[in-house]
Amino acid sequence: MYNANEKVEPINVAEEVSRSFLDYSMSVIISRALPDARDGLKPSQRRILYAMHDLSLFPGRQHRKCAKICGDTSGNYHPHGEAVIYPTLVHMAQPWAMRERLVDGQGNFGSVEGDPPAAMRYTEARMTHLG
């Protein structure tokens, strides 16, 4: 409600939109795009590994379809859609992409030359043993 005793300050809409957008974009970059300093993982990578832990996809266990992993990750931990989950899973399974491979992939996960990976229904994965 408008109170007659309150002082209303006029603002420049262009400056306010510019400042608000900059604040929002920096927030998104810091919270989603940059790896965490503690473990080097992005939030989407951490969500996938957590879903794989829930599915008991430990090293030495049987591989599971990537479609199942992506579906569980999307349904339980990643409310932003499924489009980014499988490429992130593939990236963690490629030996040339990260310092340590976090996912043990079975099937076509692409190549160094840039060949695309197979669809998620044709590939399987589990976590790798680090150390």
**Shape field:** elongated
CATH architecture of the domain at 38-127: Alpha-Beta Complex
Count, helices: 4
Secondary structure tally: strands: 3
Percent of residues in helical segments? 40-55%
**Main sheet?**
3 strands, antiparallel
The side-by-side strand order for the widest beta sheet comes to 1-3-2
Structural class by SSE content: mainly alpha
Describe the structure in your own words.
- The protein is mainly alpha-helical.
- It has a domain at 38-127: Alpha-Beta Complex (Topoisomerase II, domain 5), CATH 3.90.199.
- It has four helices and three strands; from the N terminus they run ααβααββ.
- The protein has helices spanning 13-33, 43-54, 66-76, 85-93; strands at 64-65, 103-106, 124-127.
- The protein has a three-stranded antiparallel β-sheet with strand order 1-3-2.
- Helix 2 (43-54) packs across helix 3 (66-76).
- The relative contact order is 0.14.
- The model has no long low-confidence stretch (mean pLDDT 91).
